[in-house]
Design a protein that fits this description.
Elements: E1 2-5, H1 11-22, H2 32-41, E2 47-53, E3 56-68, E4 71-82, H3 91-105, E5 110-114, H4 117-120, E6 126-127, E7 131-132, E8 141-145, E9 153-156
Parallel strand pairs: 4-5, 7-9
Antiparallel strand pairs: 1-2, 2-3, 3-4, 3-9, 5-8, 6-8
This protein binds coenzyme A.
Length: 164
């Protein structure tokens, strides 16, 4: 399996993959594919990585700039999608590890996300009550720091997350 940056020819597949992955996901807004498109259109897809095997795209992850308590240099993870019939084979983990390594390389301060702690703790994400998002319960708001900077305050995602 190869992890690489998206190419223009991948856009329709990423859209279909994102729709399929989230079709039955609990807590989904069903707007995740539109969010990826809006981030791309706004030039806010800091990283858009695909996992490819034998020429077939199996998974995708997006990372985009966020502020935390007004502080820039942080990135938001998501949406992340794997085709339903390919889930549970390590594809999501490979994509996320690859993306986090790349964010470290570009000297991001760290990464935040809204998601299930049972999945994201394996990457070092922790819930921190000092980091908040839209009044969500603390355990779903997670952060990973890459250096000395510690995030504090409300996460503000790119406006593309309002797409539908
Ligand atoms: C979440 C997702 C990207 C994970 O990718 P994946 O390739 O299936 O996951 P991996 O094979 O890398 O990891 C499998 C492990 O993650 C766990 N896992 C997968 N999805 C999970 C979830 N939503 N919550 C908790 N654990 C999850 C599996 O139980 C498995 O655990 P184990 O290693 O202890 O056995 C994929 O399942 C997906 O596309 N889901 C639908 C869309 C979605 O919910 N995206 C994330 C929104 S926050």
């Amino acid at each position: 399996m190869n992890i690489r940056s998206e190419q223009p020819a991948d856009v329709a597949t990423i859209r279909a993959l994102t729709r399929a992955a989230f079709a039955n996901a609990p807590h989904s807004s069903q707007t995740e594919a539109a969010i990826v498109d809006a981030l791309r259109d706004a030039g806010a897809l800091t990283l858009s990585l695909v996992a490819e095997d034998a020429g077939k795209i199996l998974g995708h992850v997006a990372f985009s700039p966020v502020t935390v308590g007004g502080d820039a240099g942080w990135y938001g993870l998501g949406p992340v999608s794997v085709w339903p019939d390919s889930q549970g084979r390590g594809i999501g983990q490979s994509l996320i590890h690859h993306g986090l390594d790349e964010l470290r390389r570009i000297e991001g301060k760290g990464c935040v996300l809204i998601g299930d702690p049972a999945y994201y703790c394996r990457f070092g994400f922790v819930a921190d009550p000092a980091v908040t998002y839209a009044g969500l319960p603390t355990q779903y708001v997670q952060r990973l720091t890459f250096g000395d900077a510690v995030p504090s305050g409300e996460i503000v995602y790119h406006a593309g997350f309002g797409a539908s």
